[in-house]
Amino acid sequence: MALSRTPMARYVLLSAALASSAMATSVSCAADAPLSCHNTTAYDTCCFNYPGGDMVLTQFWDTNPATGPANSWTVHGLWPDHCDGTYDSSCDPARAYTNITQILQAGAPSTLEYMQVYWKDYQGNDESFWEHEWGKHGTCISTLSPSCYVNYQPTQEAVDFFTTAVSLFKTLPSYDWLAAAGIVPSSTTTYTLSAIQSALQSHFGHPAVIRCNSNSELNELWYHFNVQGSVQTGTFHPVDPVGSGATCPSTGVKYLPKPGGTVTTVVTSATATGTSTAPSSTATGAVLSGKGYLNVVSGGSQNGCIIGAGTWYTTGTCATFTATPSGAGFTLTSSKGKCAISNNALTCASSVTAATVFAYDGASLTYSGSSSFYATAVPTGSTQATVYTASHAVALNITWQAQ
Ligand SMILES: *[C@@H]1O[C@H](CO)[C@@H](O)[C@H](O)[C@H]1NC(C)=O
Ligand SMILES: *[C@@H]1O[C@H](CO)[C@@H](O)[C@H](O)[C@H]1NC(C)=O
Ligand SMILES: *[C@@H]1O[C@H](CO)[C@@H](O)[C@H](O)[C@H]1NC(C)=O
Q: Membrane-spanning regions, if any (predicted)?
């Protein structure tokens, strides 16, 4: 079987190396590389994460002070734990870079932009937080060592570390997973640990480690993975946690809103009590309040947003909307005026007198119970598309981004 560093275990991409020194790349790994924590023989540690094979993507919910958007958890880090819960730290001080911002500006500007919103230091010093995460944990990831690159360029492995951590974080929308189960930030409601766990597990497929501070306030989630192949190009497989870490009580868990936050209270519609027309089921949904953007998701990714008139625009500045709780939902207002569904189309204008009551299903805006909106085509350039509630060629969803 393949031994460490034999050509059997990895294929060096000579063509890429010869094409351009600026195109330096990590070694390519065989598709049947063992899953980390699961090898039965020694294997090349450029294609097999060892000894840190249990990768943990950790997230924060910071409320005091608050960090990041009111409706999203933030990144803490990506940690290569050993498969028994122990871990190494600060494995290569020579690569503990102190210019992460510049490294990413040059190597992965869109990752940097994302981190500036979602990977936040509670003391306001993002650069030093990123340096800490890279130096303490990133330098211990075996597949990111310089010897795992063809024509290694210093710092490129740090670019790979942050890019991978951000992509993995995007697959773990804890806020939305919890909200979909009616678990939303509140200063009055508390939750049971089992409700939180089952909401997360129903999406992740395995238990997450749920952590609270000494006041029973939910403040951290750890998601464990094993990796097939390298951290740069391999596949992350969700697994059960190893080691300990859970710190919340079984009942009375607080999930506090971020101050200045804009989302939400859960409304439970009235249960039928004797009238023949009242609904007999209960429905839950998040009520939005405060200021935010209405982003448009079409074809699986975000593409532009709703502007002041209620139309869809893909190339300009997003309008700020104010959400105001009303009945079992909320109304929306832009600088143009109140928003309503009129003749099956979204319109915000000073001529609107009766604002429509919308709801939010935890992931997107709903009207009359449906999260589907439509346009006749995806707008380009300076074109604005009318947003319809009745079926047209392009289906879209509208998501709220709190400001
Ligand atoms: C797993 O791989 C590592 C790294 O190649 C090696 O040191 C270790 O002995 C292997 N474990 C088994 C059970 O073969
Ligand atoms: C960051 O610092 C390293 C040395 O620690 C240096 O090699 C590299 O050129 C710097 N990168 C940028 C983009 O400034
Ligand atoms: C809109 O959201 C619903 C439910 O959240 C989903 O089933 C549908 O695929 C989404 N449509 C688009 C265009 O993203």
A: none
Question: pLDDT class for 265, splitting at 50, 70, 90?
Answer: very low
Which residues, other chains included, contact 63 with Cβ-Cβ below 8 Å and sequence gap of 6+? 217, 219, 256, 257, 258, 259
Nearest Cα to Cα of residue 167 among 239, 78, 67: 78
CA-CA distances (angstroms) from residue 59 to 121, 168, 255, 310?
12, 11, 14, 34
The residues that bridge with 347 in the sheet, in sequence order, are: 340
Q: What CATH code is assigned to 2-254? A: 3.90.730.10
Catalytic residues: 76, 133, 137
Residue nearest to atom 1 of ligand 1 (CA): 42
Q: Is the pLDDT of residue 2 over 70?
A: no
Rounded Cα gap, residues 278 and 289, in angstroms: 26
The answer to whether the beta carbons of residues 96 and 90 sit under 8 Å apart is yes
Which residue type sits at 17?
A
Residue extents of the structural domains in the chain:
2-254, 290-402
103 C-alpha vs ligand 2 centroid, how far in Å?
7
Write down the pLDDT at residue 315: 85
**Cβ atoms of residues 137 and 80 within 8 Å:** yes
DSSP reduced 3-state for 44: coil
Read off the pTM. Answer: 0.64
Q: Rounded to whole angstroms, how far apart are CA atoms 345 and 204?
A: 36
**pLDDT 10s digits, 22-32:** 445 889 999 99
Q: State how far Cα 131 lies from the chain centre.
A: 21
What is the Å distance from ligand 3's center to 397 Cα? 6
Are the beta carbons of 192 and 225 closer than 8 angstroms?
no
- Joined together, the tokens standing for residue 75 give 């990144």
Reported as a single tens digit per residue, the pLDDT across 312-340 is 999 878 899 998 888 778 899 999 999 99
CB-defined site of ligand 3, < 6 Å:
297-298, 363-364, 371-372, 395-397
pLDDT reported for residue 74: 97
Closest listed ligand to the CA of 154 = 2
pLDDT at residue 21, as a whole number:
37
Structure confidence by residue, pLDDT tens digits, 128-147: 999 999 999 999 999 999 99
